[in-house]
């Protein structure tokens, strides 16, 4: 015990009791990358609620699913972006929202991003992806390169 009557652990507990959930992350955006990956980016909340941000939750779903049934994905750490590499289906439009998490819990979700549509299949010819998309998925790429 210190001379002022509180142990260091008591001060940390008091700080936790005084903290609140973080405010809403700002400026969420979904960016299509190489036609099959989507990177979600956001700006950290203006108010961390009095405790460090420990992670984020991304709520996402496609155009055919009711918002109440969207999936949640937890992202650990104080990062401000996440790339979806396997969770999304091809030829499907998705939207995303982000909520910050601290020791007091999860804050409110941001507004949803605009929908972003994934393309069909993974391309061997990544530098020809745009050409293949313009060919309306004819499954023919230039220089005899094909889809996997």
Q: Quick recap of the structure?
A:
The protein is mainly beta and 148 residues long. The protein has helices at 8-18, 129-134; strands at 26-33, 37-43, 55-62, 71-76, 81-84, 93-102, 105-106, 116-117.
SSE map:
Layout: H1 8-18, E1 26-33, E2 37-43, E3 55-62, E4 71-76, E5 81-84, E6 93-102, E7 105-106, E8 116-117, H2 129-134
Antiparallel strand pairs: 1-2, 2-5, 3-4, 3-6, 6-7, 6-8
Question: What do you see in this structure?
Answer:
With 148 residues, the protein is mainly beta. It is built from two helices and eight strands; from the N terminus they run H-E-E-E-E-E-E-E-E-H. The strands form two sheets. Strands 3, 4, 6, 7 and 8 form a five-stranded antiparallel β-sheet that branches. Strand 1 and strand 2 (37-43) form a beta hairpin. The longest helix is centred in the first third of the chain and has 11 residues, at 8-18. Residues 1-6, 8-14, 123-129 and 135-148 have low confidence and may be disordered.
